[in-house]
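#lab-general

N.A. 3:47 PM
ok so I finally got the sequence cleaned up, no stray characters, all 254 residues accounted for. can someone with queue access submit it? mine expired

B.Y. 3:52 PM
send it over

N.A. 3:53 PM
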Amino acid sequence: MCLIAWCWRPHAATPLIVIGNRDEFHDRPTLPLARWDDAPIWAGRDQVGGGSWMGVSESGRFAALTNFRAPDAMDPDKPTRGQLVRDFLAADSRAQDHLDQLATQTHRYNGFNLLVFDGQTLLGLEGRGQQARLRRFDPGVGQVSNGDFLAPWPKGLWLAQQWESALQDPTLNSMHWLGLLQNDQPAPDTALPQTGVGLERERALSAVFVRMGRYGTRASTLVQRHTEHIELHERRFDAQGAHEETAHRVPIRV
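B.Y. 4:20 PM
back already:
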């Protein structure tokens, strides 16, 4: 994922709702959101690395990942970060214990932000080479893109603000939430982060929905984690913008 927003309501019947966009090269082989044939995981699947960017387990766990944009620090020989999502969903340890262990291994991966929920606790881990930082979140709406958790990047701020307003309007449903993810307007140049990719790319990547020819937003995903089941909805896009949709209802098996 390159943009995630969440609504964390620990005492509600739906404690966690997440929306997000995955940006990737359109020719990278990917399987759509479905149950995996080798694990009780529901997620899209990268066929190159074998991992995922956002998914849930049948035990009620959730994980999502964004890359940390630091082009000068990228090492193509490091393992895929998508396995971090897979590993958490396949585990049965508490989120805190899992991330504490992972924090000692972040040097193995290129920079990442990992958001996880174990059924009780929502936590994030920022992996920056040898540095790792555990993040705890207050109830409410939060967001992360390719910087730190809650960093004021324009796309993340816009999505969080719009979604928070939409959540308070009972006339707007989940399809409206997904529609927010299709905003393809770039941010003003004065608001752009400076991550070392040049002004033209910063501008193109600043949109919630990215269109860059061979590269862009390939999937918009909605996860609603209820007490006894999880609702999943995925919209998939090609380079021309055409899309397909998949929806699933996954019972939670304790």
